Amino acid sequence: MTIQPGLTGSIFFLSITGSSMTEAILVVLIIVPFFAALACLLIRSTACRACIVIATAAMLAVSSLLLQGPLAPDAGLRWAGLIDPLITGCDFLLLAVMFYLGCRYRHPLIVLLTAGQLGLFVRLEFFVFAKDRGHALFQVDVLSLTLVRVVCLVGGLICLHAIPYMQAHEQHQNPARSRQPQFFALLLLFLGAMNGLVLTNHLAHFYFFFELTTLCSFLLIGHDRSKEAMDNALTALWMNGLGGLLLLFAIQGLYGQSAMLDMTGLAAATAGNQAALLPLSLLLLAAFTKSAQLPWQRWLLGAMVAPTPTSALLHSSTMVKAGVYLALRFAPAFAHTLLAQGLMLAGGFTFLAAAALAIGQRNAKKVLAYSTISNLGLIFACAGIGTPAAVAAAMLLILFHAVSKGLLFLCVGTAEQQVHSRDIEVLRGLCARMPLTGMIAVLAVLTLIVPPFGMLLGKWLVFEAGADHLVFYLMLVLGSSFTLLYWVRLAGTLLASGQVEGFKPERQPLLSRFPLVALACGAVVLALGAPILYGRLLPGGQTWSAGRGGVLTTAVGSFPLDVLFAVAALLGLLALFGVSRAMAGRKAFPYLAGANTRLPDHFVGPMNRPVRAMVENSYLAPFFGEERWTLWVNLAAAGFLLVMLGGALWQ
Amino acid sequence: MQTTALALAVLGAALLLGGLLSGLDRRLTARLQSRQGPPFTQPFFDVIKLLAKERMVTNPWQAFSPLATLSAAACALLLFAWQGDLLVILFVHMAGGVFLVLGAMASPSPYSQIAGQRELWQMLCCETLLFVMAGALYLTTGSFRVSGAAALGEPLLYRLPLLFAAFLLALTVKMRKSPFDLAGCHHAHQELVRGVFTEYVGPHLGLLEIAHWLEVVLYLAICSLFWATGPWGMILLPLTAFLAVIVLDNVSARLTWRWMLGWGWGAAFVLSAVNLFWLKG
After folding, report:
1. Could you give the C-alpha distances from A325 to A66, A339, A375, in angstroms and in order?
2. Residue in B closest to A615 by C-alpha
3. Where are the alpha helices (DSSP H) in A319-387?
4. Mutation choice for B interface testing from A359, A449, A567, A620 by most B CBs within 10 A
5. Which positions in chain A touch B60 (Cβ < 8 Å)?
6. ipTM value > 0.90
7. At residue A281, does pLDDT exceed 70?
8. How many domains does chain B have?
9. Torsions phi, psi of B85, nearest 5?
10. Partners of residue B95 in chain A, C-beta under 8 Å
11. Considering only CB atoms, which chain A residues are within 8 Å of B62?
12. Which among A142, A111, A73 has a CA at the least distance from the CA of A245?
């Protein structure tokens, strides 16, 4: 007699209920990606790999939606005896690999930093941490739920998009032996590591996942093995290694204060404890390196040499969010201290300076990188402000940024494979060549800057929460205006074509198109649900309310989301009507300083020859050029970090 | 239903006011230049004529942009009329500018492209100054809602004199008047033809003109916040500002964008920041 597989599955499913159900979900979220990664590495067939990736992405997406907080405090605790030594062992393995990499690439800094971590880790693990750790191993609250869903849903879609992308990428690179198995194994491994990072409640385990994402990042940046890629990967490794070392010092200090490794417990227990401020400030410095905040932006900018799925997944949507996650997790511990003020200013400065540097860039991926750094700065500043409203705003920003920025990266990557350049001027008029990708990219930009979309809602909350701090408010005002400038310029350049034909989507593989369309829909739908989301993200029992219907009301203002969406919908209808009418009418050629030829961008020049009218954007290099300003901006940022540290020591 | 009727009434009044102000502008400018000038109602006839013309575009985005710019301007104005949050009003108004620039940049015409970039710098100037003003409104009244200004009991101008000076710069930029008519002025003889409007004809140009009226009315409404103690102050202060801008337009030549960003906006931003700190201190 045979039992139907489906039946066994459902019996298995029914038999696990309550807390064991949650445990099963945690296993799927954290452990399954590791096995899927292993499978990717071992099975070298392309079709099988695609199936594994799709199945894992689907499984993660469903599990992340099923996951509900809060957890029973004993969730997973019965396996603590197994998990603990396993993670400690893996930690040693990880550090050994990093040490080896440092030696192999003759990078003394990496060797030194890894040796430091190894020494400190041994000391902590064997001599400091007491063996008894009776606290919850996992933590599922709104913060970790937000991040888990970002990782699984956005990350899953990016992985799907990577399947056709990497095939085309490899055709272009043409290596002797396919490196796609490693690539996808690392992507999936990373998803598991990231889920572990945001779900664990154990600071030592957090450190392991933190370092694991660093290693994934290194390997993925160096995937193409070119000299530039390897150099940039090593930069990322040493900077994040420094972050790891700082994190270990912070763990040591925090453990010294309250003798526990329970993350939420620590955040609550160290609140108001002056002596804990120094380790907390080290923790924030570690978070800053992970999130590539000024003056550590160099590794993230360098990481842009990696294939686009890496940039979309690690370096915009998820991994760099680990830093802000850490800051937000510990925000209650340093609320209302000088350290928090310093964090707010340092974050605000990064928001402003990175936005200014983005204006001077003509490499599309670097614009995206700077804008990521800038947005993360804003989220850090929210953690610094520390009010419930600001923390909820930070989570909204994380969510909307991940969706829109991931989408933009995918669009730029898709376009790059067609035009073979990342230069904004080469991407000029993309909407004519690749109508669907181009329009989705423009839509993604609009979701970042225009109401009623979510990003602006988050920014509005930050404006209202930060208005009491004048210097920060001015940074916010300037930074927002700069942000608007580079985004509109980018979108306008993509649109700039003399094309008069109607909209005909280009041909592309289903797995390229589906993530683009799904993320674009996600960005719009999420914005519609923003008031509900905001209501859920706020901790219960406070005076702030989501208000009537679609109006988000705070103590000092209101955001009438329903009105704005109604106007946007009305506009959409009108526009459909207006555009189709205009397209049915007569077409004209643009005005080009001379009589038009048959071509949209040529005019009749001297000797009756056609001359192409060419125009390039102004990137204002003297004012916003990277070469000129990076040093000064870094010095200023270092100054703000010193202020932050000084604030910690002063109190 | 009542709300809709009221909203339409507000928009109608704003349109009437915007058109008349535009007529006043043209008449006054003509007189300053020793000309007779058109009747006050001329702008309405101009716009009606534009709306009745044939639709022609050089790309589909040009049919969309004017609609988006107009709806953003109308929405911002309505939010103001309903005493909304000044930050939200500014965000919505800013969206109108975004679509204007996108419409200009969607065409490969160098005139419209360069003007699109300049319009972005002009937006940078206006937005920063107005957002600082919103911060000042919050510091003085404890709320970002525009209703706070009326509830204050004394003119905001007493507390925000430097910010008012900065606001005048933003108003000049917004009204597309010299010395800041960089991205598209009313006269088609400048170096960029008509700047961001170069590529538009007929009804689309008409919609953009209406959007411009509404935006000027919105700015004057924001200006009235500086003296919101009674109807006289709320009428006289914006009117004076409006006339001052027209006189300035006629006595000054266009400056380069470098000057606008470097000196004009730089000085205005410093002034408004100083005002902000002074309020707090």
Report:
1. 21, 17, 14
2. B110
3. 321-329, 331-334, 338-359, 364-385
4. A567
5. 500, 502-503, 579, 582-583
6. yes
7. yes
8. 1
9. -80, 125
10. 449-451
11. 582
12. A111
Amino acid at A529: G
pLDDT digits (tens, 9 = 90+) for B83-136: 889 999 999 999 999 999 999 999 888 889 999 999 999 999 999 999 999 999
| Stated length of chain A | 651
Q: How far apart are CA A523 and CA A521, in angstroms?
A: 5
Q: Are B44 and B240 within 8 A, CB to CB?
A: no
Give the Cα separation of A228 and B273 in Å (integer).
44
What phi-psi label fits residue A143: left (phi over 0), alpha (psi between -120 and 50 degrees) or beta? alpha
Q: Which 3 state secondary structure label does DSSP give A423?
A: strand
Distance CA A423, CA A127 (A): 54
Measured distance CA(A74)–CA(A53) in Å, rounded: 32
Instruction: Decide: B111 and B188 in contact? Cβ < 8 Å.
Output: no
Q: Specify the pTM.
A: 0.93
Read off the tokens for A368. 């995206």
pLDDT of residue A498: 67
State the residue range of the domain holding B45.
Answer: 2-280
For residue B113, how many C-alpha atoms fall within 13 Å in the half-sphere facing its CB? Answer: 24
Q: How is residue A205 written in tokens?
A: 């385990």
Q: Which tokens go with A259?
A: 């003798």
- CA torsion, ordered A630, A404, A394, A556, to nearest 10 deg: 110
Run of H or E including B186? none
CB A439 within 8 A of CB A505: no
Q: Can you give the C-alpha Rg of chain B in angstroms? A: 18
Q: How many CA atoms lie within 13 A of B11 on its CB side?
A: 17
- Running DSSP on this structure, what letter comes out for residue B260? I
Q: Which two tokens stand for residue A293?
A: 């905040």
Task: Tell me phi and psi for residue B145, to 5 degrees.
Answer: -75, 140
| Chain A residues 469-488 within an 8 A CB cutoff of chain B | 470, 473-474, 477-478, 480-482, 484-485, 488
